[in-house]
Amino acid sequence: MNEKKLTKGDLFNMFIRSNFLLASFNFERMQSMGFCVTMIPALKKLYQGEELKKALKRHLEFFNTQPFIAAPIMGITAAMEEQRANGVPIDDASISGVKVGLMGPLAGVGDPIFWGTIRPVTAALGASLAVAGSIVGPILFFLSFNAIRLATKYYGIQYGYTTGTGIVSDVSGNRLQKLTEGASILGLFVMGCLVSKWTSMNVPLVVSTITGADGKVVVTTVQTILDQLMPGMLPLGLTFLCMYLLKKKVNAIAIIFGLFAVGIIGYACGALK
Amino acid sequence: MSQLQMVLLIIVAAIAGMESVLDEGQGHRPLIACTLVGIVLGDITTGVILGGTLELMALGWMNVGASMAPDSALASVIAAILVIVGRQSIGAGIAVAIPIAAAGQVLTIFVRSATTFFQHLADKYAEEGSCRGIEMCHFLAWTLQALRVAIPTALVAAIAGTDTVNMLLASIPDVITRGLQIAGGFIVVVGYAMVINMMEAKYLMPFFFLGFVVAAFTNLNLVAFGVVGTVLAIVYIQLNPKYQGSITIVDELDL
User: Fold this and answer.
1) pLDDT exceeding 70 applies to what percent of chain A?
2) How far is CA B153 from the centre of its chain?
3) What band does A21 get if pLDDT is binned at 50, 70 and 90?
4) How many interface pairs between A and B have CB atoms less than 8 angstroms apart?
5) Which chain B positions have a beta carbon within 8 Å of A56's beta carbon?
6) Residue B47 contacts residue B81 (beta carbons within 8 Å)
7) Least Cα separation, residue A254 to chain B (angstroms)
8) A251 contacts chain B (CB < 8 A)
9) What pLDDT does residue A196 have?
10) What is the DSSP letter of B241?
11) Are A255 and A245 in contact, with CB atoms under 8 Å apart?
């Protein structure tokens, strides 16, 4: 029997399909259909008849992870299926085991990197240009974010496929833990910067108005005092309040509406500008 | 609004809806969606400004695990249409965007539950060994997400700019729109708090405070902060004794 081998074209086809991973997201099995549809080019190449049916069912089971970081999992799954199709004794459970075993830890890396760092940074960069009316803002965000995303997915699938099950030892070893910890450090550092730079709160309540000897009027507001202590102190306090409320399971939308009320009432009584 | 614009708006809305479930190309983010609406309606600048403003508010809205972000796709498209067609202020745009994002979230939950139907249909096709069938289920479920935004958009686009709608928007008192705009400056902390909670490990919080202080007292831009943060992460990992288990300390006296 000829050895069945996935080609570069098959992997590229999977890469294209992986861009639609979440299209059929549902609360029952989440990304399962997306994962199966991504695997179809490989499965069709490797199996026929009854074997194909079993393979399709195998990949319709629960799956959920960060969508970009799913790429290496797809690659490694393809590698395992390829070995299995060539007679290596790999049972269903070990393929599922690898998928399930990887999706949690990898989401732990992908969420802080992509949702916690790269998107807020590229979006804040784009938005800060956009509020001044520059079309460069959205274009910059779109191009930079998608370049990083597509590269991650493309090389992720290749990496997963060539490394194969070797990736599992990466996960159980230190490497993934290092990556997760490093990503969280970067994410938290950037969040600190954003809280300070990309928020605006101004309390214009006047504390004192002093007319200097040269006739210049120096108005001291609550905000000037706060800024002398530490710029951005109010947003920092508000961030901690929100973190506390979210941990107490208060709905984010409820908090947002609460803050709107603060803004409106604050403006109405002159405490915020 | 011409008929062509109407059709294009519905297409933009459908794209935003499809992107909002995928979370891939980011076409559902206010920055992109509002800009696209601006292009269709011939007022790019307003679209871009509204997009940037809403984007800053929605910076931390994200889908993590099974939890869902407020619906930025529906909010962005509808707010942009109302602001541009009705020549409203950015503040009025914020005022409509937030309640719509909340309502859209409910709609999203509904659609994500409804797509379970296709999941079971896909099981049946797998039983028959039909790859085509599974693909069909997958992409049909996707079209529901497109309709989720396209239908409400079509309804709003049909009435946008009419006297009634403009009167309603104009009747929002100044204190509300100004107050919302002010709140828009710090509402973003909700998103930051979500992100921090997701990553938070108490022993790593010093990096958060470091970032805060460095940003407060320097004029670095975001790219520089990203580089500094990466360097900190690498140095931390390199120096952390936890990761140096393989290196044993050799006591010279024992040799």
Assistant:
1) 97
2) 18
3) very high
4) 375
5) 125-126, 129, 131, 134
6) no
7) 9
8) no
9) 87
10) G
11) yes
